[in-house]
Amino acid sequence: MAIPSENDPSSPQNRREQTFPQLSEDMASRLVRYGVEETVPAGTILFRRGDRQSDCFFVIEGRIDIYDFDQNGEPVVFVEHGPNQFTGEVNQFSERQIMVSARTGVDSRLVRLDTRSFRRLITGEPDIGEVIMRAFILRRVGLLQTGQGGITLLGSSHAADTVRLRSFLIRNAYPHRLLDTDVDDEARHMIEGFGLTPSECPVVILPDRRVLHCPTTTALADELGITIVLDSAHVHDVAVIGAGPAGLAAAVYAASEGLDTLVLEALAPGGQAGTSSKIENYLGFPTGISGQALAGRAQVQAMKFGAHMAMARTVTGMDCTRHPYRLLLDDGTTASARAVVVATGARYRKLDHLDYERFEGQGIQYAATAMEAALCAGQEVVVVGGGNSAGQAAVFLARTVAHVHIIVRGDGLAATMSDYLVQRIEQSPRITLHPRCQIDYLEGDTYLREVGWKCADGQSVRVKVGSLFVMIGAEPNTAWLHDCLDLDRKGFVLTGRDGDGYATPSPYATTLRGVFAVGDVRSGSIKRVASSVGEGSVVVQAIHRFLNPSPV
């Protein structure tokens, strides 16, 4: 989900009437038919932080106060909903934990809409649904900007674990503030106040002042309620593994067509595309859109139609000897589905260098978003790779860093990168292309400080850097499939042929009936966001045919 600056006209501060709208009398009269009217005394708690799937409340008379707690545990009201206004933000569509609390400020007359009634309202009254959707998205952006309902991350902004935790929070649009122990006086005071030492950081400080010492991503997701609770006995119509563009598209179309849809994602929505600073050749966005913003919108869209989104849940295996298929998760739980869509995508390859793993997350990065750009502002950086992701990263970073060096093994960029990016790179005085070169030197202390490369002409270069961005090749995320599906020699999923070599009814069908593969994980796929979205949407037709075969 995009985070506008405070001066951005799209910021909630500048769109208060859309962030906290008052419905017209006509809209209000239609809305009340979907819920149950209640008279509620002042001070009644309507929902609390940590609840899952709270009801939505519409104010007929009175007031609802939305509040958080300060450092002393005292409630602080930051939003008041009056007549013809409603509660909620994007978590209203999900089964995640709510981040704020609500109570009646005065004696009030309200309309309560439970989850089912709320979804009926959104689909049955599209004009009201549009107002609510826009408000919910803007409210989440407001929480991200202010940190209301969030947590505190305490640690060095350059440390690998701080980067890992912060990236997870940002990509899952969870409000937080970072206190950098390297530069912030407040961070040092907080370390002392909690009886910590700098060596114990990073830590996550929760609203109730509990401290999580360098939690794993899964543990943090569980503590914050970012992931959802799965019922292992429930059988879904379709399980989508991976929430990149292909998986999100499959989820949107499957859920919108009435299929009970579960999405399982190891990290955050967006996949590899979610790390792109700006995608400018995606249809419908002439000025471009960041991968994170595109993924955030698609996730909300899927949830609006009823898809269940389980973030930070890694699928470690699949029992393909039985049907419905059973998916094995990293926390020891399972999920079952009648059909499965494999959309786990691919990851960037690593460089073959002795000190490579030593600097991963501490100078070596695989994404070039605003967070990574801030870590190396004013310094020189190196980007390895000749594809569009590398080109987008170089152009984006050139706005804030001292200089960008692009390293490619080939003769240039024309054969592997879109022309508009090639032209921008050629025209930028802050970007230098180094063709026919390879990285051969990494050096630093705690963090990467210097990078070197050697070129075909024998020239060797050493540069002091802030970061090295590695965006080369693609390795499929298919290890979890084990022996269930046929893979090509590089590990990508083979589609379009059954186990006997005969053509399947769908080009996305695998060698196992009811299991489909879309996007970058599929052998022979075109590695573009638009093609991944197309495959994810089209595969739903094949899923319908599998689940409801026509009589012979």
Description:
The protein is of the alpha/beta class. The strands form seven sheets. Strands 12, 13, 14, 15, 16, 17 and 28 form a seven-stranded mixed sheet that branches. Strands 19-26-20-21-22 form a five-stranded parallel sheet.
Layout of secondary structure:
Layout: H1 16-19, H2 25-31, E1 36-40, E2 45-47, E3 56-61, E4 64-69, E5 75-81, E6 101-104, E7 108-113, H3 115-124, H4 126-146, E8 151-155, H5 160-171, E9 176-180, H6 185-193, E10 203-205, E11 211-213, H7 217-224, E12 235-241, H8 245-256, E13 261-264, H9 291-304, E14 308-310, E15 315-319, E16 325-329, E17 334-342, E18 346-347, H10 356-359, E19 364-365, H11 370-375, E20 380-384, H12 388-397, E21 403-407, H13 419-427, E22 431-434, E23 437-444, E24 448-455, E25 460-464, E26 467-470, E27 475-476, E28 515-517, H14 529-547
Parallel strand pairs: 8-9, 12-13, 12-17, 13-14, 17-28, 19-26, 20-21, 20-26, 21-22
Antiparallel strand pairs: 1-7, 2-6, 3-7, 4-5, 4-6, 8-10, 10-11, 15-16, 16-17, 18-27, 23-24, 24-25
Helix pairs in contact: 3-4, 8-9, 8-14, 12-13
List keywords for this structure.
552 residues; alpha/beta; seven-stranded mixed sheet; five-stranded parallel sheet; 14 helices
Q: Count of DSSP helices?
A: 14
Outline type? globular
What oligomeric state best describes the polypeptide chains here? single chain
Report the structural category. alpha/beta
Indicate the radius of gyration in whole angstroms: 25 Å
